[in-house]
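Worked example

This section walks through a single chain of length 177. The input is the sequence exactly as stored; nothing has been trimmed or padded.
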Amino acid sequence: MAEIKVHIGGRDFTVSCRAGEEHFLKSAAAMLDNEAQALKDALGRMPENRMLLMAGLMLADKTASLEDQLKKIPAGGIDPAVLARATKAETQLAQTQAVLADTHAKLAEIEAAHAAAKEKLAQESGVRETLEAKLKASQEAKVKADKQIEVVQKAFETAAAVIDRMVGKVEKAAASK
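Given that input, the structure is written out below as tokens.
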């Protein structure tokens, strides 16, 4: 047996209980103390026996009221209207979960499509960069070719002028013979 001290109505009492039941005894003593304090606040000082009797009767009254309320609960323990509402809520929850699962699936599809589009864009961006690099290289090659053509054209013009002078000299030499 365990002995514990409890405080009820401003007084301390030592009470015995079975081992492991200390918590329940303390809880019961606290309820009795609350009732005793209410009596003391309402009626002032009174003899200990009377205070404990009145506090016990007040708790018994509350207990009897709760028992009456419990008797009004249907045999299954659940009010049929509450059960119907709970069933309806359960059905709505299941439907909402199905919609949520469907939405998650659609979101996953959208995310996959987005990832694929992003990958394709990256590939196309790479192709574009490659094409731009090739275009730049061909433009640079064209500039070089244009310069070479100018050089060749000047050389051709110079060669043509030299040939024209030589032809003129040959013609002059042939005419003087």
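What to look for: The first helix runs from residue 22 to 43.
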